[in-house]
Specification:
Elements (H helix, E strand, L loop, with lengths): L8 E7 L8 E5 L5 E2 L2 E3 L6 H13 L3 E4 L5 E6 L6 E11 L12 E5 L11 H9 L9
Parallel strand pairs: 1-7
Antiparallel strand pairs: 1-4, 2-3, 2-8, 5-7, 6-7
């Protein structure tokens, strides 16, 4: 993919929280690396259209709720350092965690920063774990 130097590849990612809302869901891809659920925002689509589609395609799970606004924004370079990307992370609720395995989701787990220290994660997952604040997600 060729993206000009002044552009970012935009991805929409799901922030799926565990029951105590202190850990977030990551998915393991076929190559063994862990990523936040979601993917690239398709041209002309809104995040509310595209994130549920990505989750359905990658995991075979239906999104039951998605925040109207992102909870987090992060940017950085891909591991190869060739493409700059921006991730918009939306709090999301799923119908269940009974995923259908695909090359983009062979396993799932809830983690925090401490949990990912020994995992092969994409750079955006580490960057997200460093800024994730469970106190922002307390239900009142």
């Amino acid at each position: 993919m060729k993206i000009e130097n002044c552009f970012y590849r935009i991805s929409v990612k799901a922030l799926v929280l565990n029951e105590t809302r202190d850990k977030f869901l990551i998915t393991q891809e076929e190559n063994g690396e862990w990523e936040l659920p979601g993917g690239g925002l398709d041209w002309g689509k809104t995040p509310q259209e595209d994130l549920p589609r990505e989750i359905s395609e990658e995991m075979g799970i239906m999104v039951t709720w998605m925040a109207k606004h992102p909870s987090y924004f992060l940017s950085g370079q891909t591991r190869t350092k060739k493409i700059w990307s921006a991730n918009l992370v939306y709090e999301t609720e799923l119908e269940n965690l009974d995923f259908t395995p695909s090359d983009e989701c062979i396993d799932v787990k809830f983690v925090n920063l401490k949990d990912i220290e020994s995992l092969p994660v994409f750079p955006n997952v580490l960057a997200f774990a460093e800024i994730f604040d469970p106190a922002l997600h307390i239900r009142k």
